């Protein structure tokens, strides 16, 4: 009788703790939704939509609905144009969750990388999935991880976009720099200066708005390689690019093969989702999906 009574007691305690945890989780989710309404200024009907979407998006990989709701607020504040379209904001948040699971990032880190990229290249929400696939594939095939790419894009993205480089082309250049030892903010600054110096030459064969990165690098290599030694004439390149950008120039020229091998290979539709699915196809991931409700 005593053993039976003790067993009932501990079972009751476990159930009580479980109910407490569930109540706490629901309270935290409701608080996150309240913050979404406060920060984004959404209507009650839009808030209901976001609540439903938070649960649905979270079920993909077991992300809590609270985390997704926090993602709505974060992404909406970083990309204000999405505030006019609740469905678009939900879609970008969904893609950020996919990116976080594919790349091993927290949702805020993935949201930051994605919104910065979309903003730098003035891309609409409809291209979020494409940008996520490029980032995930870029990390998968290149040297630089997504956090380093995001830091680089912060300094180089707007200029690259102004010269007509696509998001994929810019990732290729940044991965080539990373392979040569230049990453994060430093790589972004050097790529930006490199592009500006190219345009300033007035040489149409070196204009990044008119030529691919690979073609420009081949032109530079052909023009500034000493025929006797086979080495680059760094002195002449420095006269063109200056002390800062010459490092980018010589690094990129040295990584022409990497540029050419990555060209046109970084956009694989659905690759990020597949990576995310693979990464969460574990016992822990299955338990998270099973337990996800709020």
Q: Layout of helices and strands, plus pairs?
A:
Layout: H1 2-40, H2 44-61, H3 65-78, H4 86-103, H5 107-120, H6 128-141, H7 146-162, H8 167-179, H9 184-200, H10 213-224, H11 234-254, H12 256-262, H13 271-279, H14 283-291
The H/E string reads HHHHHHHHHHHHHH
* DSSP, total strands: 0
Determine the fraction of residues in helical runs and give it as a percent range: over 70%
Mean pLDDT: 89
Biggest sheet character: none
**3D shape:** elongated
How many distinct helices?
Answer: 14
Q: What is the terminal separation in angstroms?
A: 39 Å
In percent, how much strand structure appears in the residues? under 5%
Uncertain segments are none
- The SS-based structural class is mainly alpha
The radius of gyration is 24 Å
Notes on the structure:
This protein is an all-alpha fold and 294 residues long. 76% of the residues lie in helices and 0% in strands. The chain has helices spanning 2-40, 44-61, 65-78, 86-103, 107-120, 128-141, 146-162, 167-179, 184-200, 213-224, 234-254, 256-262, 271-279, 283-291. Helix 1 runs parallel beside helix 3. The longest helix is centred in the N-terminal third of the chain and has 39 residues, at 2-40. It is elongated and about 90 Å long. The mean pLDDT is 89.
């Amino acid at each position: 009788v005593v053993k039976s009574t003790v067993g009932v007691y501990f079972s009751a305690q476990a159930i009580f703790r479980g109910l407490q945890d569930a109540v706490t989780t629901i309270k935290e989710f409701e608080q996150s939704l309240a913050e979404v309404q406060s920060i984004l200024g959404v209507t009650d009907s839009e808030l209901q939509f976001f609540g439903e979407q938070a649960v649905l998006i979270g079920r993909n990989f077991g992300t809590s609905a609270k985390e997704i709701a926090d993602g709505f607020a974060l992404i909406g504040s970083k990309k204000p144009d999405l505030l006019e379209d609740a469905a678009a904001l939900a879609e970008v948040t969904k893609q950020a969750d996919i990116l976080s699971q594919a790349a091993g990032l927290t949702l805020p880190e993935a949201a930051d990388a994605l919104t910065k990229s979309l903003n730098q290249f003035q891309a609409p929400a409809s291209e979020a999935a494409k940008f996520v696939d490029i980032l995930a594939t870029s990390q998968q095939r290149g040297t630089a991880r997504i956090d380093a790419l995001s830091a680089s894009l912060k300094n180089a993205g707007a200029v690259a976009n102004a010269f007509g480089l696509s998001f994929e082309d810019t990732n290729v250049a940044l991965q080539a720099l990373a392979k040569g030892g230049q990453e994060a903010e430093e790589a972004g600054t050097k790529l930006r200066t490199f592009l500006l110096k190219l345009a300033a030459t007035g040489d149409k064969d070196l204009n990044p708005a008119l030529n691919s990165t690979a073609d420009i690098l081949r032109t530079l290599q052909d023009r500034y390689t000493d025929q006797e030694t086979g080495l680059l004439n760094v002195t002449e390149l420095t006269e063109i690019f200056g002390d800062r950008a010459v490092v980018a120039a010589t690094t990129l020229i040295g990584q022409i093969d990497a540029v050419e091998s990555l060209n046109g290979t970084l956009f694989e539709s659905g690759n990020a989702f597949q990576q995310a699915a693979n990464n969460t196809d574990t016992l822990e991931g299955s338990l998270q999906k099973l337990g996800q409700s709020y």
